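Appendix B. Chain record.
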Amino acid sequence: MPVINRIADFHGEIAAWRRDLHAHPELQYDVHRTADRVATLLREFGVDEVVTGIGRTGVVGVIRGRGPGKTIGLRADMDALPITERTGKPYASTVSGRMHACGHDGHTAMLLGAARYLAETRAFDGSAVVIFQPAEEGGAGGRAMVEDGLMGRFGIEEVYGMHNIPGLAAGSFGIREGGIMAASDQFSILIEGVGGHAALPHNTIDPVMVAAQLITALHTIVSRNVDPMRHAVLSVTMVEAGEAFNVIPRTVKLTGTIRTLDEQVRTVMETQLRTVTSSLVEAFGATAEIHYRHGYPVTVNAPAQTAYAAKVAAEIAGPERVNANADATMGGEDFSYMLQARPGAYIFIGNGDSSELHTDTYDFNDDIIPAGVSYWVRLVENASRTA
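Structure tokens predicted for this chain:
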């Protein structure tokens, strides 16, 4: 793997930063220690401008090259998850109920490594803007940074993101044009009937029975309203009802998620959920209160930037280790807000044979650090030759 030699030389230091972050996980916007550590290191590297407090607790560093050229944004996420770690590693979380179970510690460390190299060498034109984002895990930190003027303030023209993926060969890459990660919406439906004694169901409007029928009906929306060549997922994940074995309750609450890979299908899914729910519940004489919350939008890779990112990845890993038409995933990602603001691309880097993301035995694979850092660096350096 033709990673950059200088990066391989300080691989151990980057891994040490990563393990320090891993041992001290922080949630959502409360990433003060992590942000302070990032800002301190950026200043030590000689980064030209270090700005804190973007999007509440985000950190941005600006590294200027030899002369005029593109300004490219590179983004890493900093926050952890509310999970109790069971890896048994010597650098395991020291904070009860929190762990880096998605590899954001690795993402942050790799981008720090790229910042160090770029600040040392300056072998590029234009500017590199390194973006360290809080609150990817449900807090929409990407949107907060964009709304705080990230793109305009730092003159970002293109923006790139990267995420590790367990099961993909270590240090290999996957990317695709268009939707690569799904819009992530939530719904809750409160069904109200008429409660009563379970021995006298004819005197009630049983919301449990209505809910059972509705769950089945909702799962036909994808199969009968969405083109089979497109993608959508609807999952009912919680059912809340009743307090006693012999009482038919008055209400039942259903909660779930809808995932889609384009905005047209997203609209169809919401519309049909509302229509099916209202019609079916009314047919049984009950009523329904529907709450629908739009989460992260679809993460959409721009054509030119996707092709460029795939070319750079192939330079690092070899063409045979880059899948430029990788499968999309129905997970959500708030880098989508940055891609709405500027063209760019989001790429997957293989974490090898590891536990799945968001599990209590997951750990970032430090062996992939040189490939990830080299990818970031070449994105910036090669842009000078294509501007």
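Further analysis of this model is presented in Appendix C.
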